[in-house]
Design goal:
mainly alpha; 6 helices
């Protein structure tokens, strides 16, 4: 797999992770009494959906050049990116076991995608 393909895939996963952080920020601000229309017109929600839309288009372009069986394991990187971003942007806890999980995920992605 070319390095440019790897970069594009990782960038796509980063965008999806940013979208998840934005969705969490929207969820935290939803008032149970507000209407569905005001929720759906929330600018932060619109931004999250736009980020997800761009990431989806990039993913499609990535899959033109890379087999899904090689590209998809990179999606597991979101399990590293999202908790890390949540820690720094939302002050969510970051525990040692989370770090150990990251190591296992990185090992799995590496094993799954390495071309011998």
């Amino acid at each position: 797999m070319k390095i440019s393909n790897i970069i594009q895939i990782i960038f796509t996963i980063l965008l999806l992770s940013v979208g998840q952080i934005l969705f969490k920020m929207v969820a935290d601000k939803i008032n149970p009494n507000q209407s569905i229309v005001s929720t759906l017109t929330n600018p932060l929600l619109m931004l999250a959906l736009a980020v997800y839309g761009v990431a989806t288009i990039l993913w499609i372009f990535s899959l033109r050049n890379v087999p899904l069986s090689l590209a998809y394991p990179f999606a597991a990187l979101a399990f590293i990116f999202v908790p890390t971003m949540a820690h720094f942007t939302l002050s969510e806890p970051f525990k040692a076991k989370t770090f150990y999980g990251f190591i296992l995920i990185l090992a799995g992605v590496t094993i799954s995608t390495i071309e011998l």
